[in-house]
Design a protein that fits this description.
Length: about 250
């Protein structure tokens, strides 16, 4: 059930026929894992908290640095030196005290990542490196949990949804497993705040659609964002039957 305060708080999205009371209740009953509370994780956590997703599990082992604040808008100047999880909890609690926040302040190894993924309905990869993305993908395929994956660097962004519950869905490894580009992080290559904000906002949007059960998710499609030319492009992506991560999981 939703109380009067919740009906008011979420009224502008409950008004949408695609959400309605039923969708809002589904959001309230949902548990989501956010990997990384940086440039992508900031808008993801802010929007999912504001929208009333019932449980946000927040994973980040890092602390807030002054160089983060140009894009990681969940943190503020007073948070410098604090753990990103604690900084995020402070802000999210101020936005919406109705939801539950679960903290993972240490780096997740294979076992703890598997347990963290098993405890939720959906995972958002907001990390900034290839090895984490591969590990998160493998855990999601094994647990058959949908994964909303976003990335942004310099002036380019990418977004896709991998859903192991759908037989046609590729996984992250199907797409990027073979000869990925040399790894660059934002701290080395640079990135603009509004671009990571855009990709993170789209990740939050995909998550709300999957959790509340409306619309057409970005499964089997890769959205490419060219910030310099203000262009969005979409590529079809197929599952690789020989993929070493998801190849046998759909049998
Ligand atoms: Zn695969």
């Amino acid at each position: 059930m939703l109380n009067d305060q919740e009906l008011l708080r979420y009224s502008r999205q409950i008004l949408l026929q695609h959400v309605d009371i039923d969708g809002q209740l589904r959001l309230k009953e949902s548990r989501v894992l956010i990997i990384g509370l940086g440039g992508l994780g900031s808008p993801v956590a802010l929007y999912l908290a504001a929208a009333g997703v019932g449980e946000l599990h927040l994973a980040d082992f890092d602390t807030v640095d002054l160089t983060n604040l140009q894009r990681q808008i969940i943190h503020d100047t007073d948070s410098v030196g604090l753990s990103k999880v604690d900084s995020a909890i402070r802000r999210l609690t101020a936005i919406n005290p109705e939801i539950q926040l679960i903290a993972h302040r240490i780096a997740l190894d294979e076992d703890s990542l598997a347990a963290a993924v098993a405890a939720v309905d959906l995972v958002l990869d907001c990390s900034d490196n290839f090895s984490t993305r591969e590990a998160v993908n493998a855990a999601c395929v094994a647990a058959r949990k949908p994964l909303v994956s976003g990335a942004a660097i310099r002036l380019e962004g990418q977004l896709s949804v991998f859903d192991p519950r759908r037989p046609e869905s590729p996984c992250y490894h199907c797409l990027y497993g073979h000869g990925s580009k040399a790894e660059l992080t934002c701290s080395e290559a640079g990135v603009l705040g509004p671009l990571v904000g855009l990709v993170g906002s789209l990740q939050a949007l995909e998550a709300l659609k999957l959790l509340a059960g409306f619309g057409e998710p970005l499964v089997g499609r890769l959205l490419l964002i060219d910030a310099l030319g203000s262009r969005f492009r979409e590529l079809r992506v197929k599952r690789d039957p020989g993929c070493s991560v998801c190849g046998s999981s759909h049998a």
